[in-house]
Specification:
heterodimer, A: 366 residues, alpha/beta, five-stranded parallel sheet, two-stranded antiparallel sheet, 14 helices, 9 strands, elongated, B: 234 residues, mainly alpha, two-stranded antiparallel ribbon, 2 strands
């Protein structure tokens, strides 16, 4: 039997007081209220740790970088000990065959009991040759490891949507995890990277309640991705008032007005940045005066400029936005109507002249 | 009553005027409410995407974009409910009320008249045909550029509305799926705006064709949408 979380914590010299503080803070950050704190503590005292296999595909490791900075003083130690993180090629001490052997061992020993956390995604072109690990394409390793997993966590925009390596034209055909693995519960935790506390929050929820958090239509935990940045933005009042920064160095920018006109993607981005913020709540993009770039949205690299509100639509082959296309269409049709009306008027005038000439002739005959 | 003089004059120029009741009152009422909604939606929608210059003063003293968005949402509700009412009327109203909802695409005669109308608009036909309802070409345009487009605008519009309304609201339950289906919120915003431009281009053509045919086809169009009666002037 694996040690319980509490045993691990105590063994590492964490006091019971710190442990309880962590439990109540976690309960609060999950929005569960104070009654959940003892339940979290109880779960951590009694449950064996869930083995987690952390795989890395095509990625930049920014998710790991974010994760290990989980801001609450103890969280990073706690979470790294809480999970039985049995495999993580960037963090583990073992290397080579020894490391790979752990995958097989966990797969056999904890069949259907372990969680696979995937950072990055598998490229499918050329039989997956663009990402080779241990002499094999990553996609094979991913399929094998996920086959006996209880659940899969897709860390970041890479695993959830594809991110930069899947941006057009996607030469390696980098593919999000949920399009490769089917028939398993998959939790998408998008962001480039996701917020550290969101990552630890998702893991803590799963360990505490022994089930995956409630997900939205895109497989994201509702508790962190249920609202847009815009819905909780502290500059929202300026948006409703119609007060905007119109240039990076103007008066509105200095006064902290809404960055909507500077291309902020807050209104189209689902994430918890505006409520949880970054780096232990120090700040977040909008607070530092730059609009949201929408890094937790699907295909955010292909959605036009980060600095336009009405952004380019790539479907037309050339870079043009709805207004350019629409004005061109309306202008062309307007000009066509004017020309058509002119021709109509001319033709009608000629016809009238002909008619009156005819009727004159007739009158003459009479 | 016409004076003696006028009666004589009217008789001298008189051509027989025949008329037929085409558009029932609910259709006419819907048409003008709908037109008004579209104007409000297009103008406010334009300014939601590209807001007016910054308002001076404190945020608490202003609510400009809030009011613009309110007008947009209010008009959108009227537009959508009007569309639902119009669908209902397609079932219970006269057969003209069904014209913009279905195309007789299996009817060869209808297609040949579509091409006749095309030739008429290209000045290749000397005299126009007369129709009690929409001419086949107009019917085709109405179906794709109004009916289909309007339904698309309602779906994308309420999907965007559900983002603000929140998960689990009726708009989210009914239309929330549109956002991932079309590739994300930004994409839906762009498509909704593009739809507005297509709709406005349709309005240009619609208004022009109505005025032109009113003059050229010797049948009433504009007054028909007010009184309901189509007049044939010869």
């Amino acid at each position: 039997m694996t040690e319980t979380f509490y045993e691990v914590l105590r063994r590492q010299g964490i006091t019971r007081r710190s442990f309880l503080k962590f439990c109540s803070l976690t309960a609060t950050s999950l929005g569960l209220g104070s009654a959940a704190a003892p339940r979290i503590a109880h779960a951590m005292e009694t449950k064996p740790r869930t083995p987690v296999l952390w795989l890395h595909g095509l990625e930049c490791t920014c998710c790991s970088e974010s994760f290990i900075r989980s801001a609450h003083p103890l969280t990073k130690d706690v979470v790294l000990s809480m999970l039985s993180l049995d495999y993580d090629d960037t963090l583990m001490a073992a290397a080579g065959h020894q490391a790979e052997a752990i995958l097989d061992e966990v797969k056999k020993k904890y069949k259907g009991q372990y969680i696979v956390a995937v950072e990055g995604n598998p490229p499918l072109n050329e039989d997956g040759m663009f990402c080779i690990q241990g002499g094999r394409p990553f996609v094979e390793k991913l399929r094998e490891t996920c086959a006996d997993a209880k659940a899969i966590i897709s860390w970041g925009a890479c695993a959830s949507y594809g991110c930069v390596q899947a941006a057009k034209p996607n030469p390696t055909r980098a593919t999000p995890v949920h399009k490769v693995i089917t028939g398993k519960p998959i939790i998408n935790v998008p962001g480039c990277p996701p917020i550290a506390e969101v990552m630890t929050g998702v893991v803590t929820y799963m360990l505490t309640f022994d089930r995956i958090p409630e997900l939205d239509r895109q497989g994201r935990p509702k508790m962190f991705y249920g609202q847009r940045i815009h819905d909780k933005c502290y500059r929202r009042g300026h948006f409703d008032a119609g007060q905007f920064a119109e240039a990076w160095d103007d008066e509105g920018s200095r006064k902290g007005y809404c960055l909507y006109k500077m291309g902020c993607k807050g209104p189209t981005t689902y994430n918890a940045c505006s409520s949880m913020r970054w780096n232990g709540g120090v700040s977040w993009p909008v607070q530092s005066g730059h609009g949201c770039i929408g890094c937790s949205e699907e295909g955010f690299w292909d959605k036009g400029s980060f600095y336009d509100r009405v952004t380019d639509i790539k479907q037309f082959g050339v870079e043009s936005n709805a207004d350019t296309v629409g004005l061109a269409a309306a202008g062309t049709v307007g000009a066509a109507i004017a020309a058509h009306a002119a021709v109509t008027a001319l033709a009608r005038a000629r016809q009238k002249a002909g008619e009156s000439a005819n009727s004159n002739d007739k009158q003459g005959e009479n | 009553m016409l004076s003696q003089q006028d009666m004589l004059e009217a008789e001298r120029h008189g051509k027989q005027v025949r008329s037929i009741y085409v558009y029932e009152a609910p259709v006419r009422l819907w048409h003008w409410i709908n037109a008004l909604c579209m104007v409000v939606l297009a103008v406010t929608g334009y300014f939601i995407g590209k807001p007016l210059p910054t308002m001076p003063g404190e945020a608490s003293d202003n609510f400009l974009l809030g009011y613009i968005r309110f007008a947009h949402f209010a008009a959108a509700y009227i537009f959508a409910i009007g569309l639902l009412g119009r669908v209902y009327w397609a079932f219970v109203g006269n057969h003209h009320a069904r014209q913009i909802f279905k195309l007789p695409i299996t009817n060869g005669q209808w297609w040949s008249e579509v091409f006749f109308e095309l030739r008429w608009y290209l000045f290749l036909e000397k005299t126009p045909k007369k129709y009690v309802g929409h001419n086949p070409m107009a019917q085709l345009m109405m179906f794709f550029f109004f009916t289909v487009l309007a339904v698309g605008m309602v779906f994308t519009g309420f999907a965007l509305y559900s983002e603000g309304a929140g998960l689990g609201t009726w708009s989210d339950t009914l239309f929330g799926w549109v956002i991932p289906a079309l590739g994300g919120s930004m994409q839906v915003h762009s498509l909704h705006r593009l739809g507005m431009w297509i709709m406005m281009t349709f309005v240009l053509v619609h208004v022009y064709a109505a005025i032109r045919e009113d003059i050229m086809s010797r049948q009433s169009l504009i007054s028909t949408m007010i009184s309901g009666w189509r007049m044939f002037k010869d």
